[in-house]
Amino acid sequence: MSHCALLLCLGCIGATWMAAQSALPEVEITSEAHHHLAFQNPYVRVFNVEVDPNTQTEMHWHRHDYIAITLGDAEVSNTVKNKPTVSVKLHDGDTIFASGNFAHYVADIGPQPFRNVTVEILQDASLRNSAASGKIHWDEERGLDILDRGTKEILFVKDGVRVTEFELQPGGVVPAHRYAGPHLLVAVTDFDLHEDSVRDDIKPLPIHFQSGDHKWLPAGYSHTVTNTGTTPAKFVTLEFP
């Protein structure tokens, strides 16, 4: 095949691929069958996502910026509308931020189910503007702290939201701390926690989490957290200003 013919052939393939993408039906994220809305308030929408091997989502829209927390290892192909497909190997606990206003579909090309928790930031525009103007300020935006039989690592701050990963060995403790703003806790692993609130009117109780569970806590909440289980606990928090 001549060089010109090869280029023409590749051009035809590219045009066919683009046409095939354009022909895919598009849905809102709330209508996508693999995204299950688990929680919603004025700050966030939380979706539990699961895609079986050799299957894919529909082409769906992300209208807001979001943070995705991977549950378990997986290999996927990600096809953003009008862009080439990219294959990605994901690992348990991988936490990423993505800017919204795009459509894509994801195919599970590995042997394990692809699972994650997708947290849409509903006030992304105002938070982004406030962060850019300096109205939102965190004392720490990166850093690793060694805890009693555990670690606390600030992963990033995006849209004024601070994202932190905690890992606690059995018996590990997150010491007493106060959240000025509201925050969302997302479980990466299964674990049992014992929570001691500083409020006398709240009786501390053990809490069982399964991978993908979440808990929303209000502004001004203070507590100490202990891993009372027999396996390591891993979870991610999203702190809002």
Task: Tell me about this structure.
- There is one protein chain.
- The chain has helices at residues 3-23, 124-132, and strands at 26-28, 35-40, 44-51, 59-62, 66-70, 74-80, 86-90, 95-98, 102-108, 114-121, 143-158, 161-179, 183-187, 191-197, 206-209, 214-217, 221-227, 233-239.
- The protein has two helices and 18 strands.
- The chain starts with a helix and ends with a strand.
- The model is unreliable at 3-19 (pLDDT under 50).
- Helices cover 12% and strands 52% of the residues.
- The chain is globular and about 55 Å long.
- It has 241 residues and is mainly beta.
- The strands form three sheets. Strands 11, 12, 13, 14, 15, 16, 17 and 18 form an eight-stranded antiparallel sheet that branches. A five-stranded mixed sheet has the order 1-4-9-6-7, with no helix packed on it.
- It folds into two domains: 24-122, Jelly Rolls; 126-239, Sandwich (Jelly Rolls).
Helices and strands in order, then pairings?
Layout: H1 3-23, E1 26-28, E2 35-40, E3 44-51, E4 59-62, E5 66-70, E6 74-80, E7 86-90, E8 95-98, E9 102-108, E10 114-121, H2 124-132, E11 143-158, E12 161-179, E13 183-187, E14 191-197, E15 206-209, E16 214-217, E17 221-227, E18 233-239
Assign the structural class, choosing from mainly alpha, mainly beta, alpha/beta, alpha+beta, or little secondary structure.
Answer: mainly beta
- Intertermini distance: 61 Å
- The number of strands is 18
Task: Work out the strand percent.
Answer: over 45%
Q: Per CATH, what is the topology of the largest domain?
A: Jelly Rolls
What is the radius of gyration? 21 Å
**How would you sum up the major sheet?**
8 strands, antiparallel
Q: Please give the count of helices.
A: 2
Average pLDDT number: 90
